[in-house]
Amino acid sequence: MIEPLTRLPDGTIKQVNPITGTKVWTLPGRGARPLGQLSRHPLPIDPDDHDRHCAFCWARMRETTPEIARIVHDGDGWHETRGLLAEDLDHSTAQFRLIPNLFEILSYDYWHLAHGWEPTAESRARRTAYLSTPAGREHVTALARIRMRARGTAGFDAEPLAEDDLEREAVGLFAGNHQVVIARRHYVDDATDDSQLAGSGTLTPEEHRRYTEFTIRAMRDLYRDNECARYVSVFQNWLAPAGASFDHLHKQVVAIDELGAQKEREVERLRTEPDMFARWGAEYAASQGLVVARTEHAVAFAGVGHRYPALVVHVTDGEGCPWELTEEQVRDFSDLVHACHAATGVHVPSNEEWHHRPPGIDVPMPLRAVVKWRISTLAGFEGGTKIYVNTIDPWSVRDRAVTRLRELAAQGAVSDRLTIC
């Protein structure tokens, strides 16, 4: 196997991802660039826009699809509420909401026509209950018009909307296999200007754990409710350069009907190299001085051979499906992912990608997350050579993250369960 890290005499570092084989070159003199610098002067927040800054804000809940579930934090602690009607949405404050994506990657029609998949009894009951109230019917009708208009479907402007059109669109709105987990805040509490965004790293460790657990349950339910789903992709796009539609914290949970080429290669390799992730993950990172922080059940380190500078988190002692992990394992995973975001900062565009063992796969595959700093633009060189020019080498990523984490730990902003390396 090719050595994953090679330093050349001029300082160039050639990287080969030991899992995927992706080739990356880091050129000298680029690692000291400041990250996350605002390109404009911050603007004051208009008090009249409080919690109405984008369609994901809680004061604009009826611009999003009918809610599947929410996480509430009140005097009784943290709890999940499901099946709210449109009239009930304002009766509690959702710290996190789970909704179907209005424009899903794979639609209900895709699953139904390609696989014969039908909505679950729970989904049908939720649709019937939601449409039974005037506010619910008005909400779904407005969304049906938006979907029809976007597709160029005739009749979207009919008054009233044809019952067949409403029913057709409603099925997809309640039986979607592409869901979104939305956090409450757009800006941090008491923010005064629009630079004070609320990202993963500005949550408390406890809030981030609830966010993580809620996402894991959404994954589990998609697998449970759609027997044709072979993999559920979980990812988070933060800021427009990383693909986000809104500068509002959210994760996407998407069922697909195949594993994908990379996952298939991982499965085949694991059959002959079952310790692949341990060997080329935490162990290799430790041997190269790339570990950022540890908890009892997980480790964070600077990634090798990623298209963008990356921080990686591996669960170190659990190889089942994410919902089969213990509460402590999930907490340790969440604390480290939170710490990676906190060290990155809210002004750095990033993608957070989860990787896991899906049901039906019988090889050891730990829950992993990759936080990629989207600080460069892929261009013709990368497209023509499939060699990616990365602006910051893994050791510089590690040093930046550790320095910032020590500052955050002194402020009590990250979990005290972390051992920073």
From TrEMBL:
This is DUF4921 family protein. It comes from the Bacteria. Pfam families: DUF4921. InterPro entries: ADP-glucose_phosphorylase, DUF4921, HIT-like_sf. Residues 8-420 form the DUF4921 domain.
